[in-house]
Target: TnsA endonuclease N terminal
Amino acid sequence: MGNCDTPNSIRNGRQYELLSDFETLYFYLLERKQSVVDLREQFPIFDLARTQQLAAEFGIPHKRVGRYPEPYTIDFLVTEHVEDQHVLRAASIKPPDIELDAVTSAKLSIEHQWCEEQGIQWELVDLSTLPDPQVTLSTLRFLRRWRAHGWQPEPVLGKMVRDHFMHVYERNVPLSILLKRAAQRLRLKSEQAEDAFRYGAWAGDINISLNHEVALNLPLVLRNDEV
Model:
């Protein structure tokens, strides 16, 4: 999962530079959270004097380009709205099934220590808690296509599609058939029903499992149906 990606943000339209599928996966998970106000990727720590001190303390040479020190970067700096105030937190991504070597561990310690000194909560995000990160990423990309198709969320229509979709939902029935049934009940074009479903599932109104692949030719698994 080492592919770079450049998605445009749903929140602000800005194009993001994401360096791996793991970063893209975490970016999508954050985008779905209503409390997230802003995301900054590859956030540089320009406090070079302090990071050079920390590098010496942790026993590694500071990152450099030629003779000059280069800023360390934090994968994500996240602004969240929590209890009527904006809170900053930093996140670095640990790919699943990869052991951290001494240099990488020291680099993460530098990030952690610097953030702590700035009053910023820092966390190492371990994606191995997901059963299959690649499946989760594929599912989120499928759902997020409502944005690419130009769908504009409509609360009333969205609720109708959700209600009718859940009325026709059956296990082990391909998603395309379920959407066709819901579209017929609402007298919608199939494309409208599909994008309304994608948005509803993206927003969490339709509680699908992110641990199972979602595709039109596959049965849909809801979280309540997970084994």
Summary: The first strand starts at residue 36 and ends at 44. Strands lie at 36-44, 64-65, 68-69, 73-82, 85-94, 121-126. The chain has a mean pLDDT of 92. The first helix runs from residue 21 to 31.
